[in-house]
Amino acid sequence: MWSIIEKSLPQLLLAAVQYTIPLAVISFTLGLLLALITAIIRLKQTRGAFKILRAFFSFYVWLFRSTPLLVQLFIVYFGLPYLKIKGLFPDGIKLDPFLAGVLTFSLNTGAYASETIRAAILAVPTGQWEAAAALGFTNKQTLQRIIIPQALKISIPPLANSFIGLVKDTSLAASITIIEMFEVSQQIAAENYQPLLMYSLVALIYAVICSGLSWLQGQLEAKFHLTTTGGES
What we know:
Elements: H1 2-43, H2 50-66, H3 69-79, H4 97-123, H5 127-134, H6 139-169, H7 181-192, H8 195-232
Helix pairs in contact: 1-2, 1-4, 1-7, 1-8, 2-4, 3-4, 4-6, 5-6, 6-8, 7-8
């Protein structure tokens, strides 16, 4: 058993460094940017043509929150090649597995995180807007300098939980042939006929990574809590 672990562990760790962690970090970064844009657009009450844009982003959030992530991966990777648009994509939209994974995870993360950020922005007292207006701040300046920094502090715990969840969800990328940790564990299990051992080993690696991220989350929360407390005292 130990010889199998000793032989398999480097391969699993290499897959984590090459695919699992980059996939999670890139997807979460892009998803967070998309979430911020989505939350701001959905909160703006501008009338006219802007309502169409707000409706589009509302539909996007509804769609990705209402469908399973695995189905979304299959649609993007296996389904889009059959979407043939004359003049644009005559042969369908064919994406590299890693790119398809990043696109799907980013869109999924953006939909969920946008609700977190939207709720955090709404949680900032309305008096902050009034105080900023009294100081001559524009709405854009108020949002950038006052509201968003406070909202990000509020949203750190749920966003950190989302990132930890995303790291675990990257195991679904094996379904579209991305050679991340779970895919490698499946390949090794097919060779040594030890599925229980291999899947337990990859589960342990995920547990270690997520435990480290949970510790970092606690440190980040403590830092922002102390900063906020120190500013108030």
